[in-house]
Amino acid sequence: MTTQSGPLAGIRILDMTSVIMGPYATQILASLGADVIKIETPDGDNMRHVGPMRHAGMGHIFLHANQGKRSIVLDLKQPQGREAVLSLAEHADVLITNVRPQAIARLGLDYESVRQRNPRIIHVSCCGFGQDGPYAEKAAYDDLIQGATGLPWLMQQYGAEAPCYAPVTMGDRVTGLHAVYAVTTALYAREKSGTGQAVVVPMFEAMSQLVLGDHLAGLSFEPPEGEPGYARLLTAHRRPYQTRDGYLCVLIYNDKHWRNFFAAIGDPERFTRDERFSTHRMRAAHIDAVYAEVASLMRERTTAEWQALLDEADIPNMPMNSPADLLEDQHLRQTGFIREVIHPTEGAIRTTGNPTSWSQTPPNPEVSPAPLLGQHSAEILAEAGYSVQQIEQLIASGVTACHSLDKENS
Length: 410
Prior knowledge:
Helix content: 40-55%
Structural class: alpha/beta
Oligomer: single chain
Shape: elongated
Largest sheet: 6 strands, parallel
CATH topology of the largest domain: Rossmann fold
Radius of gyration: 25 Å
Distance between the termini: 23 Å
CATH class of the largest domain: Alpha Beta
Number of domains: 2
Number of helices: 20
């Protein structure tokens, strides 16, 4: 086993997740030092097969979401596969899943079953819906949860021709972040109590909290004081501003910003002369007109001219980047967040680091690359006490499989 470092060094996590939500969470935990054992079916995580890729089974999203993990193949439909998970759980701190709890129960790997083997286990279920409501057994995917929590509706209010999803797996990744703090907080609680517990992390509730935090608006009150929707976020003029030769992202937000903005464009008296701009409350009440006026003014100068002017006036602005631009961003490169690593089978890969900084227990900057399917099966089973003969029997019966780097590189 690779020596781990970081704030979670010494913590072992059994990762029974796939696709994005769970793997995103466990990749963060791995970057913080946890020993994450990724339990995969004989076919592997679905994201292994989503291109682009250089070799079969090593898709781009899989490579990013599974750094720092070890892979073991276990066929959980066979009793020996389930027993192997329970054996691993005896020496683990956390077991995390992202399939429906009912399916986990049918496999005999629910919290009540697992804690019989390890009462200190923290059993985290990332699922679609809270388990006390009528949606408890429904399947959930990012698109469905985005729709159910109002994002396509909001996009249409914002000005889209038709309802549409955000072009990122927002539900998966937001819920994944909830799973990270659920794991770490449950570990802290166990330090005080000495016992583990079951934690449910539902996508629907996590995304509902995100959306309603901004857009409950007038419906916050009973009786209502207006319609839902935070007006500043929904105005059609809230978008990168078009300049004479491109686009620039600008947020003129508080009174100081507005005074400085009008002074910078040579009209310092407008802040007090035009009441729509004079106070935060008036700007909020006239947000469409306020943003439309800025949009009109921004077309008068080039992007470079505006950047120089706004920087001098201490007004927040940033370029409108593409993913390709981010790879070359001077700040991300200097902080080491954008990294170039050599994968043993996939060659040179651009990837990202952990975004946090720690003064005493920093995350390990040399996180191991995403594993081949079953790359560590024999190693992990041996750690759980299986003999060479037992491992060979599991391989022969199809319960597990081993994929050697030496074989791949030969």
